[in-house]
Amino acid sequence: TSNTRIAPSLLSADFARLGEEVRNVIDAGADWIHFDVMDNHYVPNLTIGPMVCEAIRPHTKALIDVHLMVEPVDDIIPQFAKAGADVITFHPEASRHPDRTLSLIRDHGCKAGLVFNPATPLQWMDYVMDKLDIVLLMSVNPGFGGQSFIPNTLLKLKQAREKIDDWQRDGGQAILLEVDGGVKVNNIAEIRAAGADTFVAGSAIFGQPDYRKVIDDMRREIAR
Ligand code: DX5
Ligand code: ZN
């Protein structure tokens, strides 16, 4: 299914061997690398920044999907663009001017998107549809890997799918719909059915010894 993508989250990879993990998971059939940036301010955890993005960049041609869980947002965007990020998403309530931030990301040559926490309303996207390349719905509260999928996300995915389909039907540009948090082999089919086309999975992939088996199983479930 070429219109869907699997994006393993490096958050659950072995941080002592990141380059190798990136190569292995892409060799195992993954499409994108999901790169979680946490600042111990917007979320209660601290991860990796532009220097690590730059360090993994030579290890793959796959798109690097940078998920910014930081506040403020704007200052770090040029740094990630320079470090080789392809997609940059941020949480709109963490930016003082989300419309400006979306433009800033595109001005730096990257695909731009908004991330919605479980309780964040989808209305944030209504007046910036023309500036979106991707919409990311969190299916857990951001900050940690290995949490359980929040079932209400399925309804929200359907609502986001409808907004995007309406937009595209009226001639708007393509917008991807990504989901992040608690995605597993045993729930990815219903997540796909609710309208997602891009699937982040951290612990489900990096928590298993055979990445290819998990990714194959996920693809089979998506195609059902
Ligand atoms: C959570 C991160 C996710 C996380 C997902 O704040 O944005 O990308 O790594 O991990 P799993 O798939 O284990 O829920
Ligand atoms: Zn993420």
UniProtKB/TrEMBL annotation:
Q: Name one GO biological process term.
A: reductive pentose-phosphate cycle
- Is Repeat among this UniProt entry's keywords? no
Task: Give residues annotated as binding a divalent metal cation.
Answer: 34, 36, 67, 180
Q: Which GO cellular component terms are attached?
A: cytoplasm
Q: Which residues bind substrate?
A: 9, 67, 143-146, 180-182, 202-203
Which Enzyme Commission number(s) are on file for it? 5.1.3.1
Q: Cite the InterPro entries for this sequence.
A: Aldolase_TIM, Ribul_P_3_epim, Ribul_P_3_epim-like, RibuloseP-bd_barrel
Uppermost EC category: isomerase
Q: Which UniProt keywords apply?
A: Calvin cycle, Carbohydrate metabolism, Cobalt, Isomerase, Manganese, Metal-binding, Zinc
Residues annotated as the enzyme's active site: 36 (proton acceptor), 180 (proton donor)
Annotated Pfam families:
Ribul_P_3_epim
Q: Which domain of life is it from?
A: Bacteria
Q: In which pathway does it act?
A: Carbohydrate degradation
**Catalysed reaction(s)?**
D-ribulose 5-phosphate = D-xylulose 5-phosphate
What is the role of this chain?
A: Catalyzes the reversible epimerization of D-ribulose 5-phosphate to D-xylulose 5-phosphate.
Entry similarity comment: Belongs to the ribulose-phosphate 3-epimerase family.
Write down the PANTHER family for this protein, in alphabetical order: RIBULOSE-5-PHOSPHATE-3-EPIMERASE (PTHR11749)
**Protein name from the UniProt record:** Ribulose-phosphate 3-epimerase
